[in-house]
Design goal:
mainly alpha, elongated
Amino acid sequence: MAKGGWEQLWRRIDRARRRRGFERETFVLIFKCAIASTLAYVVGHLMGASTQIGFAPFTALLVVRPSVYGSALQSGRYVAAVFVGALMAGISGLTVGPTMWMFALVVLAALIVGQTRFFGEQGTQVSVVAAFALAGGTATSLSDLGSLLLMVCVGAGCALLTNIVLAPAVRFRDAENAVLVFSDSLRSLTGEMAEGLSQGKEGLDPDYWAETADGFDGTVRNAQESIRRQEDRLWFNPRRLLSREEPSPAQFDIYRDWVQALSRAAQHVQSLVRALRSTTRSGSRFSAPDDAFLRELAPLLERASEIFRVVHDQEEPERSTASDDLCAMVDDALRELDRVRERVRREWGDEQWPVYSALLTDVERLLEEVDQGYENAERSDDR
């Protein structure tokens, strides 16, 4: 490994040591894989399965997951896939024998069966096991087939046991933080845009705003993945028995609703930035917004920034109903936007109105998405 590669590895190890996050979860998963595979090998060795013992640690490595639920799901699917593959190989191996044409026919059938949705990502194991059993001669012996299946069960059991003993903590806070980080990112960008617009054309930085706004696509994916990981940790987790408060799975629906609302809000920010960038470029078929209008638009974005700040600071995703401050701020901002729209309609000509109307509509929809966010959260709480 090159020097830069070692340095990057040590940085990841240091980050895993200092704080929770992707790096720590990766190293914990590596640790669990090592324990599960070693345990499976030891159990297989004690059971005297010398010929098929490799399937025990191999299975353990394949089905260890960050959550107990994920490990149980993949263990069940993998064992089912192996049983089906071994059954198909055994039927042909014990009757016709391992001929070339039978090998091709069985593997083809196994590949088709593996496409069944039931097996999920473990579907390929149906054909892998069938091919291995036929090519290695295992399919011609009932005892070898039985030993193979037994070692697969041993590996899956050791993986599941390891996941149960080292079950991850159920942290609603991690899922909530994903939503709060998203809202804080929107607060930061809309605040910067408001400050720039208040200076007129001289304060515009549409290229930088566009780059930042496009990054929200990754923020959405990260937030959704964080919620999904925490939700998986909830199922079959024995550490729930040690928790003082029983977590409610419905809370994840609230987080998910907020992410969806903020995602749509981010799309309107992106649309707003694209409109500003396209109209201020030379050669645009639309006239650029003048300084007076940009200064009219700035306070509206400042209000949007303040609304996202309230979502973050008052931890709105944790509430069953929206705070009075948030409701009042959204209502006031929408009323102010209506007043600005009427004023712009009176004072600017029809030639500029299409661009100005589009920009105001993006801001309006941005505010409405926050309004929709807490309305969806309230409905989720009633489920």
